[in-house]
Structure formats: C-alpha cells, structure tokens
Design brief:
This protein is mainly alpha-helical. The protein folds into two domains: about 1-100, Orthogonal Bundle (Rna Polymerase Sigma Factor, Chain: A), CATH 1.10.1740; about 110-180, Orthogonal Bundle (Arc Repressor Mutant, subunit A), CATH 1.10.10. Helix content is about 75%, strand content about 0%. It contains nine helices and no strands. It is globular.
Length: about 180
Amino acid sequence: MPADEAIVNLIQAGRAGEAFDRLVPAYRRRVFGLAYTMLRDRGAAEDLAQEVFVKLWQALPRYDGRAQLPTWIYAITRNAAISAIRARRRTISMSDAAVLAEVEAVAQAPAAEDDPALWRQVGALPEKQRQAVILYYQDERPVEEVAQMMGIPVNTVKTHLHRARASLAAALSAVGREVA
C-alpha cells in the first residue's frame, strides 16, 4: 500500500509524529475490527483500540521494518486482545446476569457488513477460523500474510479457511441461503 510506504518512510526519517498522524486514520477501522472480533464487546474493543494506538505511539520509533507495517500492527492488536481476554476471564463469571445479557445482545446484534446473516455466522465460528476468514476475505490479505499475522503455518490457515467455509455453508444452507 502506498500509505504504508509513506508511513514507513516517515518512521525511518525520524518523523514518528507525522507517521502516527497518518497511521491512526489508516488503521483505526482495522484495529477496532480485530479488537471487536476477538473481544465481542464494543466498549471493550474501543478501549483496547485506544490502548493499541498508545502502544503504537510508544513503539513507533523502534519499528525496524522486519515485519510489514500491517503485520506489526496486527500482532500488537492481537497480543493486546489476548491479554484483555485473559484478564477478563479472571474477573468475569458466566453466571453474572450482566454478562449473560451482554452475550445475548452480541449474538442478536446485526452485523455491520453487507450480508448480516453471513457475518453473524462468521462471528459464531471458532476464534482461529473467524480470524482467518476476516483477514482473508474482509481485509483481503493473501494466505501467506494471514499465516504470518496469526503466527501459524500457511497450510494451517488454509485448513481454517476450508473448515470455516464448510461450517458457513452448512449453517447458511440450514436457513435456506447459499454460500458463494
């Protein structure tokens, strides 16, 4: 992406502030989207996205270019989300009425994409399959980049995508829809 190249050039020129000013609008949606996908809570995803951008601001001068910029940002977001999930698991009980209400609300909320039924089913996939589908289909990343971002082998990504497609096809055919 040309925007990524411009951001990296600014970082390498020691102009981290300018790079950050370009990075935030370019990655706001993706960071929030990944956070929401993993946390399934809009408020928590918004908070996490802010935390991620603070971390990016702090780490930007140390970005060395070994990983592509989107991969680096994705890894920081994913690691922050995993930490948030672990912290939440220690403090939340599924018997809590507020937690049950939130889970039901998320399950019934319409997806924001073009086909709400499809994206609701994507949201119901196991985490790794859901991440692979979102990165590959929604973010339009090549399988190799998805593998790098998820920290798994290419063939494992292909397996996640294959299983996800099969699950989606079965779920959507059960409600009378076809999957392309």
